[in-house]
Each structure stands twice: as C-alpha cells, then as structure tokens.
Amino acid sequence: MTTVEVPHGSRSVVLRVAAVITETADACSIVFDVPEESRDKFEYKPGQFLTLRIPSDLTGSVARCYSLASSPHTDDKPKVTVKRTAGGYGSNWVCDNVKAGDSIEVLPPSGVFTPKDLDQDLLLFGAGSGITPVMSILKSALARGGGRIVLVYANRDPDGVIFASELGELAAKHPQRLVVIHWLENLQGLPTADGLATLVAPYSAYHAFMCGPKPFMDRVHDALGRLDVPRSRTHAEVFNSLAGDPFADQAPVRVSDAEAADAATVEVELDGLVHELSWPRTQTLVDIMLSKGLDVPYSCQEGECGSCACTVLEGKVEMANSEILDPEDIENGYILGCQARPVTDHLKIQF
Q: PANTHER family in the record, alphabetically (predicted)?
C-alpha cells in the first residue's frame, strides 16, 4: 500500500485512489477521489494532465505528468491513464504498485492542450498512450459540443488499443458525429505522412489535435502541412520526464538594487485582468508572478510541460529552454513563462 498523509508543498493535494482499471496488458487507469475542500482546485479542462509525485529510493521522489483520460463533462472522478514504457521508472512503478485505497500526492490539473470551443469540428490523432488526452477531448466534445469528430488512432496491434470497447460504443452511439479510424502497424505498417494525408484529406478544414511519440507526431505535422492546414488549427501535446521537484514551494525571489534599477516593465493579462509588474532581467516571468501572489499556470518550471505557455503581444524575451515549442509557435509569439527573461524594456504578455 502506498500511503501519503501530508503534501510536500502548498500547491499539491494528497488524493485517494478510488479504483485501478486494467486497460491493456501494459496500461492501466488510476481513478481518484477528490476531497470536497479541493474540488475547485481540481476542476479541469479536456486534454489537461495531472503531475504525480512518485516515490524513489534514489532521489526520494520523481515527478511525472499523466494526461487525464476522463472528461469533466461525463465523469464524476478524474482519471489518468498510464502505459508502461521500456525503462520508464514512473510508468512501471504506477502499474506495479498502485492499488485502490492508496494515496498519492498530486498537483492540480495543468496544460494548454485543450480546445477553445467544443463545437469545432475536430481531427484527433493519437498513438499508443497518446490517446489519453485525446480521449478526454473526444468525450467532452460529444457531450457538450455539436461538431463532427474524426479520430485516427495508431497502435502496433489490436491488443494495444487502449479504450477499444469505449471507442466502439461511442462510435455506435454517435454515428453521425464520430468516425474512429484505427491504424494498426501489424496490418498497415508504420504510419506515413503520405498515408495520413490521404486518409484525412476530407477533414483538412477541421481543428487538429495530436498526441503520441515524436516520430508519429512528426509524420502528422508533415501530413497536415501537405494539406495546407494552418498552424493556428494544429495543436500538439508533448511530455518529457521532469528532473526537478515541482512539488516543493518556490523560494522567494531576491532582487538586488542593481537588478531592480535595470528591470523591465511588463503588462501581464491573466484571467482577463491586467497586472503591471517590474521584471528583473535575471528572473523568469513565472518567478516574478509567483512573488506577487499571482496564480500563474505552471507545473515543472523546466520548460518541459508547456503549462506556462503564453503569448508575447509586445516586446521580446529570451528563453533558456524552448525545445517543447515548435518554430512556428515561437514565430507566432508563444513563449514559456518559466523560461522567459526580458530583453526589451517594456513587454505585454497574455496568458
């Protein structure tokens, strides 16, 4: 039994495991009970993820991000789905150890891989466990939207198809709105850009969302590019293992007199409100916003999860790590608040 009683930081919450569901031979879902006093904190959008604190004999703990496969519109309790990866400490620990009744420390939902409008026509791509956030979006759009949905789901063989029964039931229940296309490697080979482009050409006007291994998403990007799908209608979810400890409370930002004198000014729009802040050039945007008591979205602070993605409307920043962003993202003004430091004297940024 895994028992955690006291969270390690002010942002995290200890959740009880309500159930563990075997999805395939190497994937399981963890369903959480959320205490009444934390329900507001754990409201989430379709496609977001949770960060779990997993014990480790070597480091004390590791942090791992797992997408919510549940829908806030159809499921009473949040559920993450975890698939074993070769050599993956976190995924194997979860699948081997977590049982109903256990408790796990969890950060509130985060992430920006979510449709702005559930009425949009959606073209969804998933490969392997990449189906997880896509499933949350799919179920939410069926429940609360009115558009058409096409899912292309790639796996090695039928035994690896997570949510196979549920997808079949949803397609049968919504035949006018949902099309599910399975791409099985043992029958069709690996997905190719040409094959994917031919497959989804009739749906090139839809909003595309993709999640899966990098080679798969590279081919999807290539396929959508051949169909002239604009970057504004293409959304990708990328996860990397986190090296730091997002569960620990951040130390107060200390700013010297010289740093304060040379600071930039930034107008930050967050949840519809604009805040004008002094932004020392050695500090990240997330650090400064946290020091002012603002509820800035963030998770890893390593530039690996994308939770703090925002848009530069005016001014220029530099980023220590921006690999999670595509060149097109950066060209369109997207930055990572946890990596961004000011270059110009005045900036406007929108979350």
A: 1,2-PHENYLACETYL-COA EPOXIDASE, SUBUNIT E (PTHR47354:SF8), NADH OXIDOREDUCTASE HCR (PTHR47354)
> Domain segments of the chain: what residues?
13-109, 122-237, 257-350
Q: pLDDT above 90 covers what percent of the chain?
A: 75
Given this model, what pLDDT does residue 114 score? 93
Identify the CA nearest to 139 among candidates 117, 170, 177: 170
Kindly give the interhelix angle for 214-226 and 193-200, rounded to the nearest 10 degrees: 50
Contact 69, 132 (CB under 8 A): yes
Residues 230-265 have pLDDT tens digits of: 988 999 987 766 767 788 877 777 878 888 899 999
CB 65, CB 49: distance < 8 Å: yes
Task: Please give the class, per CATH, of domain 122-237.
Answer: alpha beta
- Domain 13-109: CATH superfamily is Translation factors (2.40.30.10)
Using CA atoms, how far residue 85 sits from 26, 27, 89, 331, in Å, is 9, 10, 8, 33
Buried b (16+ CB within 10 A) or exposed e, 228-252: ebeeeebbbbbbeebeebbbeeeee
Q: Could you give phi then psi for residue 286, rounded to 5 degrees?
A: -60, -45
Strand ranges (E), 238-316: 264-270, 273-279, 309-314
What is the CA 16 to chain-centroid distance, rounded? 22
Mean pLDDT, the chain, whole residue set: 92
Partners of 126 in the β-ladder: 153, 211
